[in-house]
Amino acid sequence: MRNSLKDKVAVVTGASSGIGKALVYELARQGAKIALASRSLEDLLVIEKELKAQGADVLSIRTDVTKELACKELMEQTFRYFGRIDILINNAGISMRALLEDLDTNVLRKVMDVNFWGTVYCSKYALPYLLQTKGSLVGVISIAGYIGLPGRTGYAASKFAVRGFLNTVRVENRKKGLHVLVAAPGFTASNIRKTALNSEGRQQGESPRNESNMMTAERCASIIIKGIRKRKREIIMTFIEGKLTVFLSKWWPRFVEKLTYAHMAKEPDSPFK
After folding, report:
1. Mind listing the domains of the chain with CATH numbers?
2. Quick one: pLDDT at residue 145?
3. Average pLDDT taken over every residue of the chain
């Protein structure tokens, strides 16, 4: 089958929950071999046990993507075990919810460390292996990588940065066969809002949004995997909150800013009220 993922080796960061976990199951379903990376080894081992029972070839590696050496070891250990790396999906991420004037700047630093520097470190050390296989380098960002979301300064900044970083890596390697995909989900049902940091750097604990009507993590993962197989450059998911908003922001930025502010202000306990 053309562009089949069977026996391809994929590394997925943030693999223990949400979109990352869904990506792992979809990759396994399509026959890929997978290195699961997360800070929670216990959660990874539960997933590993389930997938191995289904016949999948998987490896769990405890990884803190804010640590450069840990990211280097992740790639080296994956290569030693599987003998190649075909896909890296930079999915590990955290969010935040606070106004800039209220928050501790360490919150911004922590978000950037995970979302941006985690992507940089993993991409840097996966790159030699991906160039060997003419593989895929993927970054899971957000609509916040295109539109400034009020109350999410650090999160939006990190996603803008990842998009710029990966777009530049694509240009640098345009003659080397490297595929680079930037995937931007809209609001997706996951635990990222529950673990979002408040102004003091503590997890807020509950999602401020009704997640029942959001895109599922499984649907999001399916779209990303399809984009990898088709070697797409960019995916913006959902229509109104995604494609349409990004399009309108290019022509009517003030209008979009007004709508964005009003939309985010509707959240329970919104800092804009």
Report:
1. 9-265 (3.40.50.720)
2. 92
3. 90
pLDDT-derived band at 193 (thresholds 50, 70, 90) equals: very low
Contact call for residues 184 and 84 (beta carbons, < 8 A): no
Q: Dihedral through CA 190, CA 219, CA 45, CA 130, nearest 10?
A: -110
* pLDDT in the model for residue 256: 84
Does 201 score more than 60 pLDDT?
A: no
Residue 199 CA to residue 99 CA, distance in Å, equals 7
Q: Which residues are catalytic?
A: 155
First to last CA, the chain: 54
- Provide the pLDDT confidence category of residue 231 given band limits of 50, 70 and 90: very high
How many CB atoms within 10 Å of residue 254? 8
Nearest to 175 by CA among 139, 131, 137: 131
Judged against a pLDDT cut of 60, whether residue 205 lies above it is answered with no
Q: Which of 22, 45, 134, 143 is nearest to 84 (CA)?
A: 134
> 3-state SS of 167-212?
HHHHHHCCCCCCEEEEEECCCECCCCCCCCECCCCCECCCCCCCCC
3-class DSSP state for residue 235?
Answer: strand
